[in-house]
Amino acid sequence: xxxxxxxxxxxxxxxxxxxxxxxxxxxxPEAASDADWAGYLFGAPNDRDFQREFWRHTPSNYVFVAExxxxxxxxxxxxxxxxxx
Amino acid sequence: xxxxxxxYGLSRDYPVTGDIPATPDLKRSYDVVIVGGGGHGLACAxxxxxxxxxxxxxxxxxxxxxxxxxxxxxxTIRSNYITPExxxxxxxxxxxxxxxxxxxxxxxxxSQRGQLTLAHTEATLRSFHLRAEMGRxxxxxxxxxxxxxxxxxxxxxxxxxxxxxxxxxxxxxxDGGTARHDAVAWGYAREASRRGVEIHQRTxxxxxxxxxxxxxxxxxxxxxxxxxxxxxxxGGANYEVAKLAGVELPIRxxxxxxxxxxxxxxxxxxxxxxxxxHTYLVQSSRGELVIGGGSDPYxxxxxxxxxxxxxxxxxxxxxxxxxxxxxxxxxxxxxxxDMTPDYxxxxxxSPVDGLWLDCGWGTWGFKATPVAGKxxxxxxxxxxxxxxxxxxxxDRFERFAVLNxxxxxxxxx
Lengths: 85, 413
Ligand SMILES: Cc1cc2nc3c(=O)[nH]c(=O)nc-3n(C[C@H](O)[C@H](O)[C@H](O)COP(=O)(O)OP(=O)(O)OC[C@H]3O[C@@H](n4cnc5c(N)ncnc54)[C@H](O)[C@@H]3O)c2cc1C
Prior knowledge:
The structure holds 2 protein chains of 2 kinds.
Chain A: E1 3-6, E2 10-13, E3 17-22, H1 34-42, E4 50-57, E5 62-69, E6 75-79
Antiparallel strand pairs in A: 1-2, 3-4, 4-5, 5-6
Chain B: H1 3-10, E1 29-35, H2 39-52, E2 57-60, H3 69-72, H4 84-104, E3 115-119, H5 122-137, E4 143-145, H6 147-153, E5 169-173, H7 181-194, E6 198-200, E7 205-211, E8 214-220, E9 223-232, H8 238-243, E10 252-261, E11 271-274, E12 279-283, E13 289-295, H9 307-320, E14 329-339, E15 346-349, E16 355-359, H10 369-382, H11 406-409
Parallel strand pairs in B: 1-2, 1-9, 2-6, 3-11, 9-16
Antiparallel strand pairs in B: 3-5, 4-5, 7-8, 8-9, 10-13, 10-14, 11-12, 12-13, 15-16
The site of flavin-adenine dinucleotide has 42 residues of chain B, from α2, α3, β10 and β14.
């Protein structure tokens, strides 16, 4: 079983986590065009590289950010969403 | 043994002919370059050559022929989708499968034995009624069957009466079936190469040349070739290959896994799938049970299996047919699927002139191999998208005109 390190609970089996997908910051509703919304809704970062993703540790219902390489599966860093730049 | 047979067998000019010629030298230019030698690319090449007289075509395949998702899929063929655009398209696909062995003079072992999808909840049953009405309206064979109907179609199924996964009914799709995936790809490849299409295996496209908004050729690891038109049909690599031309596709890659058991005597005539269990089964003509299910839970380009998913499939299969306990798994694998936001493919024009897309086939594209090939060939030959493909355009996302097939795709592909 793969492990993922939860910033709050430490290393846990991957089956304890729910994947919430790549981090995408919603556009400003005052300024966004239709194209911006389409990009936000449907566009997808899918490069064979590290990407920022939201994950949830289900037993503790804690959501955090992981930097994971979608080609190799390597997880470089996990941290609380408050630490996101 | 008759002497003539022995003589024939030992003869120096034993008349074996390879189905597909060895990879030739790359020419400097082709009318059409197809990137990706899976079922889709090969089918398009066949229809271009046979029906449109376009034979100056090169199919460029990074690995060996049809070794991508065409080799990895579980070969479910069906048209029981929910959108009218989707049903019309897949219905044509099923029809072409019916004619394929004749079309290609190659036995693709199309076996139209029907697909039974199980409902274990009221909500699923309601959605089946919706699909059945839609399917009937569009002229496919699709009906909701009750518990007795399910038992009659699949006598060995565990109905789980009174249990948490009681089978409440099913969606019976008499048009559903399977075909031999390698035969489909090889049949198209043989016919295409007979008419002059060049098939280049072990040839990777590394760059796509675009000048003034128009595609002019591709750069491969064996040199550059100019092209009048280029089609991308690269399965799990579609996002990355389109990006070589500066085209961003709304695709995310997820692994999809499957496995087969040891061969058993024939006992299962229909395709069976369960939405709640995320498991489906079919018995191949070799007697093996082919078992598939849902996608991996997170994005990845990995083509490795995981124990969790395999355990999950085994659990689902043993729940549906408890006597399978103890049957051994022979082979298991995964493929990278190019998932779109609405579970429908992306076919037709790209923002680059002359660059055509046959992408976003995710977990559901084998059944569309003939129809996508035929219709994309028509598109490339005429330089214009036919009506049946228009709804699948890349720009549907900007127009918020999505074709949501998520519910009709889950756990049966
Ligand atoms: C486990 C699994 C089960 C499935 N089950 C079903 C099912 O039951 N029913 C169904 O309809 N669909 C199913 N699918 C989906 C189906 O397999 C695919 O949608 C379909 O096979 C796609 O065919 P294709 O020819 O477009 O792609 P592929 O067969 O993947 O071919 C693409 C080819 O492009 C080549 N390529 C990639 N990059 C390059 C490059 N840069 N240069 C040159 N060549 C390149 C690859 O090597 C590959 O051979 C399943 C998929 C998987 C993984």
